[in-house]
Amino acid sequence: MAITEHRDIEKGDNKGLEDLIEPLVDGKPGSKNVDDCEEEIEQQSGSIVMVVLSTAVAVCGSLEFGSCVGYSAPVQNDISVDLNLSVAEYSLFGSIVTIGAMIGAVTSGRIADTIGRKGAMALSAVFCIAGWLAIFFTMGSLLLDMGRFFTGYGIGIFSFVVPIYIAEIAPKNLRGGLTTLNQLMIVTGSSISFLLGTVVSWRTLALTGLVPCILLLVGLLFIPESPRWLAKVGRKVEFEDSLRRLRGAKANILAEAEEIHETILTLQSLPKARLLDLIDAKYIKAVIIAVGLMVCQQSGGINGIGFYASETFQTAGLASGKAGTVAYALIQIPVTMLGVVLMDKSGRRALLLVSSSGTFLGSFLTGTSFFFKGQAIFLEWVPLLAVSGVLIFIASFSIGMGAVPWLIMSEIFPLHIKGAAGSVAVLVNWFGAWVVSYSFNFLINWSPAGTFWLFSGFSVLTVIFVAKLVPETKGKSLEEIQLYINK
Fold first, then answer.
1. Average pLDDT of 215-220?
2. Taking residues 57-61, what's their average pLDDT?
3. What is the C-alpha end-to-end distance of the chain, expressed in Å?
4. pLDDT class for 374, splitting at 50, 70, 90?
5. How far is CA 386 from each of CA 178, 305, 314, 335, 377, rounded to the nearest angstrom?
6. If you write DSSP's letter for every residue of 116-130 in order, what string do you get?
């Protein structure tokens, strides 16, 4: 599951705004000659290094996110045997990460506004480290669940602060490409967990989850804080220093500094939205679209299939779930990269329609394989159908339903209600993730075929929902999107 910006990042108190009435950076823009242009190119090359380094450090949080989400799939059988866990106990372990993430996501905005973007990332890493160590040392279900909850809380904060930090430090011409690294690294982390889980024990795999956290904590010592956050809290000298480190020591940062200053003042002057405002006729359709897409994303079964992939393959009749799990891991990264490329070429709606049609096909094939197994017919086809169905499902999900709902959500809300509306949407998403991941094992015990056919039915409803209600936002300004939604 992939999670992107979901609330108004500028919402906060007015501390320090009085100091921002004066220009943030002293200086006057001047004319440029050929020598100035050559010097600017050299400065931009130098500044890109710091931006890329800062982004690389931040996406260690995304890598940790993926590692945590992918942890439960390859280790289900080993943990259940070693700790003598029942289906209910393992389902709680697999799903409690989403409860922690839900709480982390809700509190992340206030945390990031209070202690800064770097501080929030450091806090997230500490929670994840505590969680992984608890899992590693556990001898029973209580400490196991506590560790899983802590890692969930940590990645809930990461899900908000990482894309925010990248968006705030990146220059306009690099912002889009660098922000997509967040989703790519989440998928990469999940795939690495899937692959390592086939060759190491579950305790060792827990220790590998410490690596992104350690890299992040060390890297934070060498990168600047978000200049936008520094400006918002009135730390003028540190703001200038941070912006210069990101843009180059000799760069003319006056124009960008003034733009940040004006943006902050504008956002602070907007009315603060309440939850009741979301049912206003001007916003209700956008809320229905955003929340509906989150429901569609989770009801297709991604967190059940992803969290328990290895067990699904074994239930289908494979001698070992490891081969299917490896294939699952390897297919995610290239397909996600393809989705990133196609997003601004084919459009959001087209990707959603293709993606949800593919998840229908994948779930239907997997359900059919279990039906054949239950009826003791075409048994030689059962493993092939099951693996093919799951791989079609994850490839289809990765190309559209994984990232596009979050992108559309960030595009359809007016700025002053984005915080409240985004919070509702992300809560719905995490709650849906918990329902699916907790109930999946019970549903499989009830009827494997029925479970996947149920998911395929929700995919059909997703196709209808997208076709009827979701607008195409590619290439449209916020004002154009608002006019289209409310017409």
1. 97
2. 95
3. 32
4. confident
5. 36, 12, 10, 20, 14
6. HHHHHHHHHHHHHHH
**Which residues lie closer than 8 Å to 159 by C-beta, 6 or more apart?**
3, 4, 6, 65, 101, 104, 105, 108, 426
Q: Residue 421 in contact with residue 293, Cβ under 8 Å?
A: no
More confident of the two residues 81 and 270: 81
Which region among 39-48, 268-277, 398-407, 446-455 has the lowest average model confidence (pLDDT)? 39-48
Q: Are 316 and 387 in contact (CB under 8 A)?
A: yes
Which tokens hold the place of 370? 């279990």
pLDDT above 70 as % of the chain:
84
Determine what percent of the chain is predicted with pLDDT higher than 90: 32
Q: Are residues 289 and 470 in contact, defined by beta-carbon separation less than 8 angstroms? A: yes
- Minimal CA–CA distance to 297: which of 354, 359, 341, 346? 359
Which of 298, 228, 269, 278 lies closest to 412, judged by CA? 278
In total, the chain counts a number of residues equal to: 487
At residue 28, the pLDDT reads 44
Query: Which of 298, 376, 374, 362 is closest to 324 using CA atoms?
Result: 362
pTM across the whole model: 0.75
Q: Residue 67 is encoded by which pair of tokens?
A: 């590692």
**Range 244-260 burial, b when 16+ CB lie within 10 A, else e:** bbbbbeebbbbebbeeb
Rounded distance between C-alpha atoms, residue 316 and residue 320, angstroms: 10
- Distance from chain centroid for Cα 4: 5
Question: 470-481: buried (b, 16+ CB within 10 Å) or exposed (e) per residue?
Answer: bbebbeeeeeeb
Average pLDDT, whole number, for the chain? 82
Q: What does the block give as tokens for 348?
A: 């959001």
C-beta of residue 271 within 8 angstroms of C-beta of residue 444? no
Q: How many CB atoms lie within 10 A of CB 337?
A: 16
List the single range of 122-126, 254-258, 369-373 with lowest mean pLDDT: 254-258
Q: What's the rounded Cα separation, in Å, for the pair 463 and 354?
A: 9
Model confidence at 2, in pLDDT bands (50, 70, 90)?
very low
What's the per-residue H, E or C state across 235-261?
CHHHHHHHHHHHHCCCCCCHHHHHHHH
**Range list of H helices, 71-140:** 72-82, 87-137
Note whether 231 and 23 are within 8 A (CB).
no
Angle formed by the axes of helices 72-82 and 172-196, to 10°? 30
Say if residues 68 and 209 touch (Cβ distance below 8 Å).
yes
Residue 456, token pair as written in the block:
């395929």
DSSP string, 156-222: HHHHHHHHHHHHHHS-HHHHHHHHHHHHHHHHHHHHHHHHHTTTS-HHHHHHHTHHHHHHHHHHGGG
| Helix (H) / strand (E) containing 43 | helix 34-70
CB 317 within 8 A of CB 383: yes
Q: What are 5's two structure tokens?
A: 């910006």
How far apart are the C-alpha atoms of 279 and 288, rounded to whole Å? Answer: 10
